[in-house]
Amino acid sequence: MKIGVLTSGGDCPGLNAVIRGMVLKGIEAGDHEFVGFRDGWRGVVQEDIITIPRSMVRGISKQGGTIIGTSRTNPYEGDGGGPAKIAAMLERNGIDAVVAIGGEGTLAAANRLADENIPVVGVPKTIDNDLNATDYTFGFDTAVQIATDAMDRLRTTGESHSRCMVAEVMGRHAGWIALHSGVAAGAHAILIPEQSLGMEQVAEWVQEAYDRGRAPLVVVAEGFIPAGYQEAYSDKGLDTFGRPRLGGIGEWVTGEIERITGIESRNTILGHMQRGGTPTSYDRVLATRFGMAVLDLALEKRWGSMVALSGTDIVQVPLADAVGSLRVVPQSRYDEAALLFG
Q1: Where in this chain does the record put each Phosphofructokinase domain (predicted)?
Q2: Equal fold, 2-138+279-322 vs 141-275
């Protein structure tokens, strides 16, 4: 079988490990052939294809990013877009299956194409860990570790100057990164999109920690909406999907904390640092297992399905189960963490 693979959407630590696991298992299992679509769906609609030999995946599981590139292209747009033209492209190149590695948008497109008889299977990917149908996605553990390391460093400089330190992390709709890294770093307040809080409450937690002689640490997800506001903070215009470009809520929170408490405060936006660099060992293992398991889906022609993690087991689920709604932080998890605030 000749299998085409693409990585689409935001980059993520562990993408290369998926490709490596799939290719190595495929070569050992039956001398299958692999090609890559360059820059995600763009490579599909523009027929930009490269061969992926065994030598190309040698040692790549430890590399961040993706060796075949990524983009946010819509496979239904452009001269080569749409199921009919994609099917013709696959036939011209003798490609029997497409493996789409991506987040909610990528998998939604894959699911739609599968419904229109394109032979496609999926691998869930997002550092935000907000995809339904899987307990964890690779990239999340790395993002949390990067954020935690940064917060540990912020704590030391904050303590030296008796300042409140605010760390802004990624998380448009779900606060998993903020929750996990905040708990790990011992944050005195964690602000996430799922919980609308007033700044008076946040300031109270900060003041409590400060009065005990601590340098308060506040973690805020980029999608946090303060009480009294209707949408997430944005002053950077719109992205290619027409969504507000987030980033900057940390600076606003910092100003409010200093205004209310009088405590000198500083903000740090971690931004794309959370996406880059070497994946953790956990993410390398999970991504490798996903890559090996998705090959089985392709060989068995289980179109419209994807691999997922259930407990510690890799399972098969319909792509439709992963799209349409996001996996957000439940109230019980936030209440658990809130016991540590202040």
Answers
A1: 2-297
A2: yes
Reduced to 3 states, what is the DSSP secondary structure of residue 103? coil
Question: Quick check: is 313 catalytic?
Answer: no
Catalytic residue among 31, 48, 96, 128: 128
pLDDT at 127 over 70: yes
CA–centroid distance for 50 within its chain: 25
Task: Provide CATH code, domain 141-275.
Answer: 3.40.50.460
* Amino acid making up residue 32: H
Phi first, then psi, for residue 272 (nearest 5°) are -75, -5
Task: Kindly report, residue by residue over 231-253, the tens digit of the pLDDT.
Answer: 776 666 665 556 677 778 999 99
State the binding site for substrate. 126-128, 163, 170-172, 222, 266, 272-275
Structure confidence at residue 231 (pLDDT): 78
What is the domain partition of the chain in residue ranges? 2-138+279-322, 141-275
Mean pLDDT of 172-201: 96
Annotated binding site for Mg(2+): 104
Residue positions forming the annotated binding site: 10, 72-73, 103-106, 126-128, 163, 170-172, 222, 266, 272-275
Is 37:4 a contact under the CB 8 Å cutoff?
yes
Residue-wise pLDDT for 284-318, tens only, equals 999 999 999 999 999 999 999 999 999 999 999 99
CATH 2.40.128.110 fits 2-138+279-322, yes or no: no
CA distance 334 to 61: 33
